[in-house]
């Protein structure tokens, strides 16, 4: 595995208030996390103490962390892997979401590009799509009992200002080489109303 340069802790690409540990309390539990509070996997550990070293250390046990762990175990079964979680298993954003798995197709591109550059912004969005595809594949291959639905979704800007911002971000994403062949854009309000009559 090729060694990567460390990310500087003093980087100004991400606002400083984003650094630090998750809040120890004052966070909400989603409906599905409330129903599994007695499950032993929530605080599962394979060792009494955190190992002093490991070949691979993954921070976070959400959708991305578990996907990376599974990929690493499959690719390098001989490597030692540690997954670190601040609270309980999958208790971060993945466990608190509204029950949908919808990757960002382009909306975050401008923000990511400003913070990390064009190439990395494209990689971030590609990673979201790949993570979603891997999740769907895992559910289907392992007959996971869940309400998986795969289909088209809508992003609906509800003000002219929001529509203009969305159009600008989409145009920048496309010009940078972002994958757009699966995205339909309907900028005219009358045409958009035909696409989604329930929203008018």
UniProtKB/TrEMBL annotation:
Residues 55-197 form the FAD dependent oxidoreductase domain. Pfam families: DAO. One of its GO terms (cellular component) is cytoplasm. This is FAD dependent oxidoreductase domain-containing protein.
